[in-house]
Amino acid sequence: MLSNDGGFISRLIIWLLVVVVAGTAHAARIHLPKNTSVVNGRPSLLSNGLGLTPPMGWNSWNHFGCKIDERLIRATADAMVSSGLAGLGYKYINIDDCWGELNRDSQGHLVPKASTFPSGIKALANYVHRKGLKLGIYSDAGIQTCSKTMPGSLGHEEQDAKTFASWGVDYLKYDNCENTGIGPKERFPKMSKALLNSGRRIFFSLCEWGQEDPATWAPSIGNSWRTTGDIEDNWNRMTNNADQNDNWASHARPGAWNDPDMLEVGNGGMTKEEYRSHFSIWALVKAPLLIGCDVQSIDRATFELLSNKEVIAVNQDKLGIQGRKVKKYGDLEVWAGPLAHKRVAVILWNRGSSPSNITAYWSDIGLQPTTIVDARDLWRHSTQSGVKYQLSAQVESHAVNMYILTPHA
Ligand code: GLA
């Protein structure tokens, strides 16, 4: 009698476990295949080892839209090297939408547009690889891309991933238009798996605009995921994207980054201080740093912003922890995040319309109350030694002060 009851109870427990596990898998509704590995305690389909720090490079969309051709891509690669930007880490040369013919060929392959990319993508990849750079390309998890000028990869994931690999592509941005109403959690993992099967390590950048909270499911299938709609070259849009992206800070980690969209620095719609804010915040929150202006004719002010090694080092810090908004006093904000060697990166951001004093208290930025630090100002390139309790500064309208605080031993 007793042993029968025990048998019943253990069967009941097993049944309950099965129900809970099945329920959790169903709730996540993400379609991971059987050979999924586990990375940092989480199931990971995408063990490609890429993006241990956020990707840096250039993308054609923000400045050129569909007006792209192979000459532009080659000239941009040349300019990235000759300007010194490539040497600072900006390695990816990413072609966005509009590089292909409207239709696939008779075997179903994507075809580079003959009028604008006559030499083909493989030739371009060879060109940028010879310069020590990497080539990125764009497709869409739907039946057409957002421009509707070329096919998407929905239903052709394996074939397209193999095509990209055979061309020597290093990065895929994968968009969300014309998706026939199928959910992104079903469409995006297919391409992730196809890229893994392609025989080449390809950085996978998901672009479903933050619609289904990708931070909660994309880390296991992608190296980055958009958390927002498209950025525009204006203050409101840039600040909105920064705020929206901030909601997902805890989900980012090496190999898997939140993406508030590409940089607009240098495109002319914001002031120098607004662009400085844009670049500083993107660096602190470990966003991909993808330049979106015309680097062939980059001006001195834009170059000075994009080439600040101390700010880039915050973005590329090996801890890979996303900095976040830690305090807000109306339009005055403090953003901060930990860096390797017990250092802390801090931004005092004045989003208001007049100059104001902003203070970061140690308790808000994760320092012990008695800690004494040296505060390095990353834009003025000067150091204040022996700072205690708090850091205060007068910050101009729409501007930032950005620091690394190094505790005394
Ligand atoms: C979408 C993406 C953009 C860009 C365009 C191209 O809007 O979010 O970043 O790739 O498509 O058509």
From TrEMBL:
One of its GO terms (cellular component) is plant-type cell wall. Its EC number is 3.2.1.22. It comes from Spinacia oleracea. Residues 330-405 form the Alpha galactosidase C-terminal domain. Keywords: Disulfide bond, Glycosidase, Hydrolase, Signal. It catalyses: Hydrolysis of terminal, non-reducing alpha-D-galactose residues in alpha-D-galactosides, including galactose oligosaccharides, galactomannans and galactolipids. It is an enzyme of class 3 (hydrolase). The gene is LOC110801557. GO terms for biological process: carbohydrate metabolic process. The keyword Lipoprotein does not apply. GO terms for molecular function: alpha-galactosidase activity. InterPro entries: Aldolase_TIM, GH, Glyco_hydro_27, Glyco_hydro_27/36_CS, Glyco_hydro_b, Melibiase_C. Residues 1-27 form the signal peptide. Belongs to the glycosyl hydrolase 27 family. SUPFAM superfamilies: (Trans)glycosidases, Glycosyl hydrolase domain. Transmembrane segments: none annotated. The keyword ATP-binding does not apply. This is Alpha-galactosidase.
